[in-house]
Design goal:
This protein is α/β, with parallel strands linked by helices and about 500 residues long. The protein contains 19 helices and 21 strands. It folds into two domains: about 230 residues, Nucleotidyltransferase, domain 5 (2-Layer Sandwich), CATH 3.30.420.40; about 220 residues, Nucleotidyltransferase, domain 5.
Length: about 500
Amino acid sequence: MAETRRVLAFDFGASSGRAMIGEYDGEKITLKEVHRFSNDPVIVGDTMHWDTLRLFYEVKQGMIKAKHAGGFQSIAVDTWGVDFGLLDEDGRLLENPVHYRDARTTGMLDESFKLIEEDRFYEITGNQFMEINTAFQLLSLAKKRPKLMERAKTMLMTPDLFNYLLCGEMKTEYSIASTSQLLDAKKREWSGEVIKALGLPDTIFTEIVPSGTKIGQLSPAICEELGLEPVDIIAVAGHDTQSALAAVPTEEKDFIFLSCGTWSLLGTELDEPIINQKSATYNITNEGGYANKATFLKNIIGLWLIQESRRQWIREGNEYSFGTLETMAKESEPFLCFIDPDAPEFVPAGNVPRRIKEYCKKTGQKIPETPAQITRCINESLAMKYRYSLEQIAECTGKEYKTIHIVGGGVQSELLCQMTADSCNRKVVGGPIEATVLGNIALQYVASGDIKDLNTVRKVISASSEIFTYEPTDALAWEEAYIRFKNVTSL
């Protein structure tokens, strides 16, 4: 393997994106950030859009900067799940893709159950029912904007849309398809039964390719525009959670991972999906991962609650940093009050601190008045919800889990990591922070043959990353608080 081989990863989160170069020397992967940019939704009228064309402009800026930083031999994109773009017969976007937090899916979950029986829906897809899912976004369009659907020739999930803009190939990568609630989880292909039941045109769905597939080369037009040589476009695990999961630094077969960012995704990796009455009752999702792995997990609202609270306090004139909020929360009274992080009132953007106060008042608890109390309430509630979800997953798999691996931005919160260890009464291993990018980059090297397989990926990333360990403390106090948490949140 040539030491100078480099790969370029684009990692899109719900609020920002970045371009990072990875270089593998045979033992470790080193990262270099070359471009960072905001990802700001744009509300036009009553619709919240992603500014996709602006984001593609930022992709081009990232490629230019990467060229000047030494060049690269392949590109891969990972993004959040469930969202998509619709293309016309000429391959042009019909409109800017719509944000999953847009209100258009309100009521679509119940509408879908009129078309396909709920148990059968879950039996096929194995997905946690959430109104933000692709299936319900498309159902909304079919019911409310049928003329738009008539014009749609192709649907591409967000990372696949960027791949198409880069190389002109219309393919759907397996992991991102599995977030749609339109995939047959066991057959690992689009479900004709679900698509037909929802009244969606089956012609808009493209071929599903395995994670880690080379799908084309950078288009001649972009090469000419940016002064680049043709490079490979790799469909890695396009869903950022699955790229992050590939980067969990463990040699254990049975482990719990927590990909902690705007969303928290807590689960375990399996060879086959688990779809039965118990998993349906617990509303646990089965996603597809690299090497056809099944990821059995719960989607939990995560650091969004802190992020959106901070935005509210800034609007009120208080420029708290995340570090300041964490320090204040550490010094605040423990177990004052709890929320269910996944309560529907916390999903939309807006005044989250006010909603937390209203939730606590409604549930007969002490009302948090200060940013410190609210921040502590959020962190403790998240740690409790992690335990609640872990118990459900362990019950379904019949396995014991000794370790929780936290990856992603949440690793930077020592408070949340320690609270998770305390709440779950398990060792927490934190890191890598840059799990999604490292997974993206490592899977590019697997596609090129420079890294052998997923087990080797995890060994390489373990050698490349700083890892932190947290042991549980004061188990009795957390056990008593957990009982209160379940009572006040009615879980």
